[in-house]
Amino acid sequence: MERLDKILAGTGRWSRREVKELIRAGRVLVNGLPARAPEEKYDRSGLDLRVDGAPVSGEAFYYLMLHKPSGVLSATEDPRQKTVLDLLPAHLRRAGLFPAGRLDKDTEGLLLLTNDGVLAHSLLSPRSHVDKIYFVRVEGALDQGDEAAFAAGMILEDGLECLPAGLERLERPDEALVTLREGKYHQIKRMLEQRGKPVRYLKRLTMGPLQLDSALNPGEWRPLTAREQAALERLRRA
Ligand code: URA
Question: I need a surface site. Which of 74, 93, 110, 158 has the fewest CB within 10 A?
Answer without folding.
Answer: 158
